[in-house]
């Protein structure tokens, strides 16, 4: 392992440790959305993390539209539809709702799809926000700013769960490149793990599938390199 990779993994692991196991274990899901939820967010935003932990804990599979700072693609849609640039922003086409505010998103998801009550680590607001800010502070520049990219025709697919440091590294690259993707959450005890293993061949995340090129891969460093090589406009992965 070279020094850059060592630092990458160490800081991503420190970020995960600030929210230990939150979103890594499945909570009861009463039903699944028929049409995928849409989540507008960016990786380093601590409030977005809270929303992502909720979808991860419920093993939900939203389409994620990355909205990094300086992004030209999906930020505008949020402004147009919601009235302001603020993230996270959730759209549920099944119920017709759309909302800002991570606390409202958590409450909505567990009411609509879970067993009613969100777990304490998402409900205790001051604790959730503070620790999520600490997590972001370990990787202040990753998953924050947009990098010019070209858009894929078909949605990429990422299998992941929120608290894995390696999944974070993969999500950061998708975010920086503003690549929309279907996020399949497979936390521990998720009922969806069986299906996942039959697709991927083993229980390991992150796992990226790109239907545009046929590429599929597990390793976070390889995922970052692949995404930059394939979609960045003339820039290699840092
Ligand atoms: N109270 C909101 C706070 C959301 C918020 O402040 N989000 C910041 C990013 S961390 C934002 O949208 N900033 C505007 C921008 O990025 O353009 C929540 O919990 O969702």
* Proportion of residues in extended strands: 5-15%
Number of domains: 1
Structure classification: alpha+beta
Please, what is the oligomeric state? Answer: single chain
Query: Which superfamily, in CATH terms, is the homologous superfamily?
Result: Glutaredoxin
Low-confidence runs of at least 5 consecutive residues: none
In total, the number of strands is 8
For the terminal residues, how far apart are their CA atoms? Answer: 16 Å
Strand order of the largest sheet: 4-3-1-2-6-5-7-8
Q: How are the SSEs placed, and which strands pair?
A:
Layout: H1 3-18, E1 38-41, H2 46-57, E2 63-66, H3 75-82, E3 89-92, E4 97-99, H4 102-112, H5 120-123, H6 125-137, E5 156-160, H7 165-176, E6 181-185, H8 193-200, E7 207-210, E8 215-217, H9 220-231
Helix pairs in contact: 1-6, 1-7, 2-4, 2-6, 7-9
Glutathione binds at residues 45-47, 69, 85-88, 100-103.
What would you say this structure looks like, in words?
It is a single chain. With 238 residues, this protein is of the alpha+beta class. The chain has a single domain, classed as Glutaredoxin. Helix content is 40%, strand content 13%. It contains nine helices and eight strands. It has helices at residues 3-18, 46-57, 75-82, 102-112, 120-123, 125-137, 165-176, 193-200, 220-231; strands at 38-41, 63-66, 89-92, 97-99, 156-160, 181-185, 207-210, 215-217. An eight-stranded mixed beta sheet has the order 4-3-1-2-6-5-7-8, sandwiched between helices. Helix 1 (3-18) packs across helix 7 (165-176) and helix 2 (46-57) runs parallel beside helix 4. The longest helix has 16 residues, at 3-18. The chain binds glutathione. Residues 45-47, 69, 85-88, 100-103 line the site of glutathione. The site of glutathione has 12 residues, from helix 2 and helix 4.
């Amino acid at each position: 392992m070279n020094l850059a990779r060592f630092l990458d993994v160490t800081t991503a692991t420190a970020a995960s440790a600030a929210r230990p196991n939150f979103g890594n274990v499945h909570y009861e899901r009463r039903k699944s959305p028929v049409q995928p939820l849409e989540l507008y967010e960016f990786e380093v935003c601590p409030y977005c993390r809270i929303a992502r932990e909720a979808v991860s804990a419920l093993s939900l599979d939203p389409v994620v539209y990355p909205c990094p700072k300086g992004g030209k693609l999906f930020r505008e849609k949020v402004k147009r539809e919601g009235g302001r640039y603020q993230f996270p922003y959730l759209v549920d086409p099944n119920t017709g709702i759309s909302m800002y505010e991570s606390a409202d998103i958590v409450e909505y998801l567990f009411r609509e799809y879970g067993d009613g009550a969100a777990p304490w680590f998402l409900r205790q607001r001051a604790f959730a926000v503070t620790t999520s800010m600490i997590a972001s502070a370990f990787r202040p520049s990753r998953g924050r700013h947009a990098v010019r990219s070209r858009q894929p025709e078909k949605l990429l697919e990422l299998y992941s769960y929120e608290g894995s440091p390696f999944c974070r590294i993969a999500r950061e690259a998708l975010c920086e490149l503003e690549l929309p993707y279907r996020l399949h959450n497979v936390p521990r005890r998720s009922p969806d793990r069986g299906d996942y293993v039959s697709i991927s061949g083993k229980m390991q995340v992150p796992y990226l599938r790109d239907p545009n090129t046929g590429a599929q891969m597990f390793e976070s460093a390889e995922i970052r390199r692949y995404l930059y090589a394939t979609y960045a406009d003339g820039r290699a992965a840092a």
